[in-house]
Write the structure tokens for this entry.
Amino acid sequence: MPAELLKDYLSGLLIGHELVSGLGHMRNELHEGRPLLLIGEGALCRRYVRGLELLGVEPTDRLENTAPRGLFQFAVAAGLIAPAGE
């Protein structure tokens, strides 16, 4: 396999393993209507969505690029910066 394809290949293997093992534990929750929410960088979420599609599961929603807001909230909670608007 060409070296430039290894990163995507390994990413796919890890995502596939994570989905198969995780969904095995979540089947009851999914059938009960609990939401499946993907949180992360857009391209990575799209890979997870594709993997879920192949397994017959549709995520409820995706939240992309939440890290900046989350880090801001951590900084506010730690007293490092003032909340927005103050």
